[in-house]
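wait is this the right file?? whatever heres the structure
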């Protein structure tokens, strides 16, 4: 890192994208990418759940228990 340069920040997931496990297709690939993040210079930000290899899921309105979702009919339950 050059003197005065900002440190690197690495992020692979967010609320705007599918989860790593879903995008990469296997636990092995996801673990390999998470391992790579550990050796890159700078800091790594993980989206909540990616560290335990969580996948995307569809939740029907009948399965919803979140009060904010139950009160808002415009909430989408399918992650695209």
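ok assuming it is, sequence goes like this
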């Amino acid at each position: 890192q050059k003197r005065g340069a900002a440190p690197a920040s690495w992020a692979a997931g967010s609320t705007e994208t599918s989860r790593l496990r879903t995008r990469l297709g296997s636990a092995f690939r996801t673990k390999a990418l998470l391992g790579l993040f550990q050796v890159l210079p700078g800091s790594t930000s993980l989206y909540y759940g990616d560290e335990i290899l969580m996948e995307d899921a569809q939740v029907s309105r009948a399965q919803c228990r979140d009060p904010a979702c139950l009160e808002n009919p415009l909430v989408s339950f399918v992650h695209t």
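The CA atoms of residues 22 and 55 lie 5 Å apart. so i think its the right one actually
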